[in-house]
Amino acid sequence: MPDGLVINGRGWNGNTFRVEPWKTYRFRISNVGLATSINFRFEGHKMKLVEAEGAHTVQNVYNSLDVHLGQSYSVLVTMDQPAKDYYIAISTRFTTKVLTTIAVLHYSNSRQGVSGPVPRGPTTQINWSLNQARTIRRNLTASGPRPNPQGSYHYGMIKTTRTITLANSAPWINGKQRYAVNGVSFTPADTPLKLADYFNIPGVFNVGSIPMSPNSGGNAYLQTSVMGANFREFVEIVFQNWEDTVQSWHVDGHAFFVVGMDGGQWTAASRLRYNLRDTVSRCTVQVYPRSWTAIYMALDNVGMWNIRSENWARQYLGQQLYLRVYSAAHSWRDELPIPKNALLCGRARRRHTRPLL
After folding, report:
1. What is the pLDDT of residue 146?
2. CA-to-CA separations, 341 to 200, 261, 319, 352, in angstroms, rounded
3. For the whole model, what pTM was predicted?
């Protein structure tokens, strides 16, 4: 299969899925690959989207579905076609050479195997995928109190406390290919950052060692990049991509609301096109080539959290940073202490953890 794919469901045997006529099956599709977006489709069958990374979605029907790095969806498929075998096709997206692999949807009363051409995927144009992504919205009639499914908390009515802009790039540093965020290419420290922060160990990292907006003038450089923010802030993060490849970003420890995405340069006027009513919440989001994606995120989790590219080569070579969400209260209500049997390393090796009550 191209890159990486997980298909969960009853009846899966090798590359064949045995189904009963007129029954409806739930497929959960996850792109667990290293570098490539994929397109997923069933020959002759429609997919009804019902879930995106734990969020109930508007139940739109699709012929094929783009799944970007680190993302998961659940779809319902009804076996309402004539009894025979059908292709399940998965193709790479936005690659110079399109790779396709297949599985088989086998009706229990089928007497005819798969035949003919494999169903083709969508065009390589970005707009098709961008427009599909905008149709993925939260189902406001599911899993919430009525008449207000979001209760007293509505992301579109909360004022953001700051805007953070993160731009990816692919600089050469010291004669080697690196990847960077806002001109900073991440290098690991000799001590895990959470341990250094917890024990107040100096010299491991500096809060503010990465700017909150792109570095337009200076050269890219290596740094253990840590950005500071305060507990219970509600921030707007804009991912700006000027490269020719699709980016996929993951934020540890938090779910966020994908409020907008479009081509070109993000500006303050872009907020006029935000979806402030029913966007989905998720932890991984794509940014199309020469485009931007904006998210709203409540910093409701104290700690040291990684923001990284889901493309593993880019992540390994520096396209990541840490967001330090800080609370001056140091309350166990906000963050539990490190367990007393935790393994310590680096400069924290001879420190002693505080015992749990």
Report:
1. 56
2. 19, 44, 32, 10
3. 0.92
